[in-house]
């Protein structure tokens, strides 16, 4: 007899795209689940990307041109 799973228990792995199921893989020593990743390998790859700063949130000040910098357009028309 299978256990009914809710929609929140199913996802696709953000690293490899394979199906990820909550509770399908559990580390017996630590009692942890890699969800929303399909495996601890993909979870570790994602952690490495965070630590290497591959994921970044754009800084609002870096998108705006700095004052005094030439904008290429003139308002003297």
Describe this entry's structure for a reader.
This protein starts with 9 loop residues before the first strand and ends in a 14-residue tail after the last helix. The chain is built from 2 helices and 2 strands, in the order ββαα. 21% of the residues lie in helices and 8% in strands. The protein has a domain at 8-55: Erythroid Transcription Factor GATA-1, Chain A (2-Layer Sandwich). The protein has 77 residues and is of the alpha+beta class. A two-stranded antiparallel ribbon has the order 1-2. The protein is elongated, with a radius of gyration of 22 Å.
Write a concise synopsis of the structure shown:
Helix content is 21%, strand content 8%. The chain has helices spanning 40-51, 60-63, and strands at 10-12, 19-21.
């Amino acid at each position: 007899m299978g256990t009914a799973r809710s929609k929140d228990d199913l996802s696709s792995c953000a690293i490899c795209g394979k199906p990820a199921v909550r509770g399908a893989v559990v580390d017996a020593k630590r009692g942890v689940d890699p969800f929303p990743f399909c495996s601890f390998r993909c979870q570790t790859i994602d952690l490495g990307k965070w630590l290497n700063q591959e994921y970044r949130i754009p800084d609002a000040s870096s998108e705006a041109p700095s004052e005094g910098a030439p904008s290429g357009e003139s308002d003297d028309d």
